[in-house]
């Protein structure tokens, strides 16, 4: 049995879960999320918890069991509290500005890079070098943060670029010079 799949998902106050066959709708104070799950997984609601059950111990059902439970837990957490990721911009002259809903990032290219937020995502700027990505879908928040980081990933020699807050960049020593023979 999957340890993750067996754990019930607790539904907090103010969150409503609607189950129709394999389509789940979760509504909370932050918004609403919909998702279709595999029709083999049985999702039931008992009191203030959601329980995911699998029909057999086949490899496919075992892998879907934990996945379904994790996705459900992320939906409930998202509509209740939301998700956020913080990115840092490191480098001399590197900065970010908010232009309406969009971001204008200057990271050493000949032109500023404009970033449009995905639907359901809000972008905020803290200072000149921190970006905060907020939303109710963990998947979409991660995708938006990854797209922003991909504009200028951290350089392994100097450490300049866009990185997640708290990300450790191990710097390479660089060229040691010509060996004396």
Give a description of the structure.
It is a single chain. Helices cover 21% and strands 35% of the residues. It has 181 residues and is α+β, with helices and mostly antiparallel strands. A hairpin with a 2-residue loop joins β5 (42-46) and β6 (49-53). The radius of gyration is 22 Å and the shape is elongated. The model has no long low-confidence stretch (mean pLDDT 92).
Features:
181 residues; alpha+beta; Outer Surface Protein A, domain 3; 2 domains; four-stranded antiparallel β-sheet; three-stranded antiparallel β-sheet; 3 helices; 13 strands; 35% strand
CATH topology assignment of the largest domain: Outer Surface Protein A, domain 3
Which strand order do you get reading across the main beta sheet? Answer: 11-12-7-13
Total number of helical segments? 3
Within CATH, the superfamily of the largest domain carries the name: Ribosomal protein L6
Shape-level CATH architecture of the largest domain = Alpha-Beta Complex
The percent range for helix content is 10-25%
Question: Could you provide a short overview of the structure?
Answer:
With 181 residues, this protein is α+β, with helices and mostly antiparallel strands. The protein has helices at residues 3-6, 59-80, 138-149; strands at 9-10, 16-20, 23-27, 32-36, 42-46, 49-53, 83-90, 95-99, 102-106, 113-115, 121-126, 130-135, 161-164. The protein is built from 3 helices and 13 strands.
Structural topology:
Elements: H1 3-6, E1 9-10, E2 16-20, E3 23-27, E4 32-36, E5 42-46, E6 49-53, H2 59-80, E7 83-90, E8 95-99, E9 102-106, E10 113-115, E11 121-126, E12 130-135, H3 138-149, E13 161-164
Antiparallel strand pairs: 1-6, 2-3, 3-4, 5-6, 7-12, 7-13, 8-9, 9-10, 11-12
């Amino acid at each position: 049995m999957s340890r993750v799949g067996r754990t019930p998902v607790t539904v907090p106050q103010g969150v409503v879960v609607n189950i129709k066959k394999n389509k789940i709708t979760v509504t909370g104070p932050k918004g609403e999320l919909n998702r279709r799950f595999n029709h083999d997984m049985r999702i039931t609601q008992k009191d203030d918890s959601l329980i995911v059950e699998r029909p057999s111990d086949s490899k496919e059902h075992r892998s879907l069991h934990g996945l379904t439970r994790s996705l459900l837990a992320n939906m409930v957490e998202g509509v209740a509290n939301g998700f956020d990721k913080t990115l840092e911009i490191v480098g001399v002259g590197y900065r970010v500005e908010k232009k309406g809903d969009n971001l204008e990032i200057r990271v050493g290219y000949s032109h500023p890079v404009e970033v449009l937020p995905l639907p359901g995502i809000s972008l905020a700027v803290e200072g000149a070098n921190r970006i905060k990505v907020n939303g109710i879908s963990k998947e979409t928040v991660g995708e938006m943060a990854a797209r922003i980081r991909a504009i200028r990933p951290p350089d392994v020699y100097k450490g300049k670029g866009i990185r997640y807050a708290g990300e450790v960049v191990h710097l390479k020593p660089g060229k040691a010079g010509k060996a004396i023979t």
